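Tokens as discussed.
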């Protein structure tokens, strides 16, 4: 009886049709939904479902993520990661968001950063934003399912972030994350993921960062050196300044990092 009262209160401001669709979503634990999903759960036609969804969105009971893709209003906080990787397929959470999830930074990014093989526009969800970066299919690896969302493994989150350091707060922040992560990493897997990325600039950058932080790993560095860039590459891909050259890793150092702060 109490449960029925709560449901009545929860749906008191919506019509019978709207209440019915909301119940279908909740009873079937749908993270995201649209006409296709709701049509398979009801006997309604497309027009009736579409009109009801439009009305629910107007009343603020559901949020439109993209075309024919909705989520319950208020679900952004506790189920944001689940909704993000469900709304964008294929995808996994990476960059600064993943580094924060793994505990390598105290920063709490306001954007859920995804890697996908498809072009996807940013998705606004309440006060949150879901943002996808396109990777080539050959670089779409190193992730695992955590409950109902898909997260980059520790090693791959670092590789992705070093490839595009602006997605993790810059090289200074990356250095801090790498230092914090080092003792928790599978070094063989890290090496495999760096080489597998098939980008010699990334290899040179990784070796330079490891040296700068004074990280142990002679075997890793020896293998990385054999795969470093043939020519000089920029440490920070988006910075044009030239401070000096590092011959060991063939890196144009264009960004000073306070190494001692991270050792």
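Sequence:
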């Amino acid at each position: 009886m109490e449960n029925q009262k709560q449901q009545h209160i929860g749906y008191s401001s919506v019509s019978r049709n709207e209440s019915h669709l909301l119940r279908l979503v909740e009873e079937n634990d749908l993270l995201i939904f649209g006409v296709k999903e709701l049509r398979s759960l009801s006997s309604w036609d497309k027009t009736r479902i579409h009109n009801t969804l439009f009305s629910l969105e107007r009343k603020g009971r559901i949020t439109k993520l993209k075309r024919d893709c909705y989520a319950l209003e208020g679900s952004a906080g506790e189920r944001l990661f689940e909704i993000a990787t469900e709304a964008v397929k294929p995808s996994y959470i990476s960059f600064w968001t993943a580094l924060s999830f793994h505990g390598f930074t105290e920063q709490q990014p306001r954007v859920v950063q995804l890697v996908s093989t498809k072009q996807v526009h940013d998705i606004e969800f309440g006060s949150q934003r879901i943002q996808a970066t396109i990777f080539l299919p050959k670089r779409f690896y190193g992730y695992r399912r955590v409950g109902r969302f898909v997260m980059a493994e520790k090693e791959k989150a670092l590789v992705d972030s070093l490839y595009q350091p602006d997605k993790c707060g810059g090289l200074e922040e990356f250095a801090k994350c790498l230092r914090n992560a080092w003792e928790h990493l599978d070094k063989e897997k890290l090496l495999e993921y760096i080489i597998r990325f098939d980008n010699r600039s990334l290899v040179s950058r990784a070796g330079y960062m490891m040296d700068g932080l004074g990280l142990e790993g002679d075997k890793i560095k020896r293998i990385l050196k054999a795969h470093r860039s043939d020519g000089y590459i920029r440490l920070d891909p988006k910075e044009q300044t030239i401070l000096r050259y590092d011959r060991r890793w063939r890196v144009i150092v264009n960004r000073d990092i306070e190494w001692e702060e991270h050792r």
